[in-house]
Amino acid sequence: MLGLALGDAMGHPTEFLTMERITSAFGPWHTMEMPLSAGDVVRVTDDTQMALAVGEALAEVTTSPRESGRAWGTPQTVPPAQVEAALRRHFVTWLHDPNNDRAPGQTCLDACAALERGVPWQDATVVRSKGCGANMRVAPVALVPGLTAEQCSGIAQLQAAMTHGHPTALAASDLTAHAIRLLAHGCALDELLPQLRLHAVQSRRKYHGDWLGDLAKKAGAPDPVTFIAFGWDECLRALDKVTDALRDPDVDRDPCEAVGPGWIAEEALATALYCFLLVGGHAREAIRRGAHSSGDSDSIAALAGAFAGAKHGPGQWLPEWTEVLEYDDRIRALGRLWD
User: Fold this and answer.
1) What DSSP designation does 292 have?
2) DSSP states of 122-140 as a string?
3) CA gap 288, 292 in Å, rounded
4) Rounded CA gap, 222 and 211, in Å?
5) What Rg, from alpha-carbon coordinates, does the chain have?
6) Whether pLDDT at 253 is above 70
């Protein structure tokens, strides 16, 4: 979560800029410094705000082992209706937060406004949207102790589907959470892409009806399997782009040119994976490479930071960054609950 927030903050001022303007303002990517806002604060965007909304919603409906007396790794019960209700509350709270002034995506704004009206979330979501606003916030799902792989996939897809109803938004969020889960449990870097591809192939025909309800029907799909398979197929093609780009790696090339600009779900995941793997998983270099890019820089760097943080833990981040990080208290509260 610290890595996600720091990557988000570093990529915030470079979003929408050309590579020429980024280099002119911030220098080469490998010497890029963390930007500070007024009051010497490391300021984040809606990416971190919504990740916190997901994390704090899950904190309401799950229990930590130390609080419940459960053994670490013991599966816990998380009813879909309770998760949906908690996510709805926290998404609506974010919608009206006075600090929700970081140019949030229109899909999230529209869907959260509909959620506030109390309609079923399958009617509130924007079914044609696969923007990266769904998987930029999914990291907490991978960090809750005691979730089974099935629960992790179901929750990752549900939190995406409540605003972004396109099947690729669901699959990319599931795959992003799976990457973080793998890295947090010691997955080697050279095994990450093969493991993600395996997960995508195994999930391709699995529609999580307990979590998604009749979303496929609302989206006009002929059947649930056809609906979800479309999203996984797009994610598999995105993983192919990462593999192809890493065959001829160039650390100084714009990662958005190598893989994709990252405005849509599967590209944000793919380009962030590329940045993370391109620098051998190095934490600070991963977010610098993600932030120094011509596309959706804050979301790319946020995901690259989440991958790096899951791999290495909090010790890789500079104290002069974390000590003045916006929302540091809320991030660390989730750490105390779950780590």
Assistant:
1) S
2) HHHSBTT--BTTTGGG-GG
3) 6
4) 19
5) 18
6) yes
Could you tell me which residues come within 8 angstroms of residue 145 by beta carbon, excluding any fewer than 6 positions away?
64, 65, 72, 73, 338
Q: Is the pLDDT of residue 190 over 90?
A: yes
Residue (of 134, 218, 220) closest to 171 by Cα position: 134
**194-197-201 Cα angle (round to 5):** 140
Nearest-angstrom CA–CA distance, 284 and 197 = 26
Contact 99, 49 (CB under 8 A): yes
Asked if 47 and 302 count as a contact pair (C-beta separation under 8 A), the reply is yes
- Nearest Cα neighbor of 203 from 78, 212, 329, 277 is 212
Which of 63-72, 76-85, 106-115, 238-247 is least confident?
63-72
Instruction: Give the model's pLDDT for residue 72.
Output: 67
pTM of the entire predicted model: 0.96
Q: Measured between alpha carbons, how far is 77 from 144 in angstroms, rounded to an integer?
A: 12
> Structural domains in the chain?
2-334 (1.10.4080.10)
Query: Sign of dihedral through CA atoms 39, 45, 48, 51?
Result: positive
For 75-80, the CB contacts below 8 A with 24+ separation are 75/146, 75/147, 75/148, 75/151, 76/146, 76/147, 78/147, 78/151, 78/155, 80/154, 80/158, 80/210, 80/211
Q: What is the DSSP string of 213-245?
A: TTHHHHTT-SSHHHHHHHHHHHHHHHHHHHHHH
> Residue 74: pLDDT above 90?
no
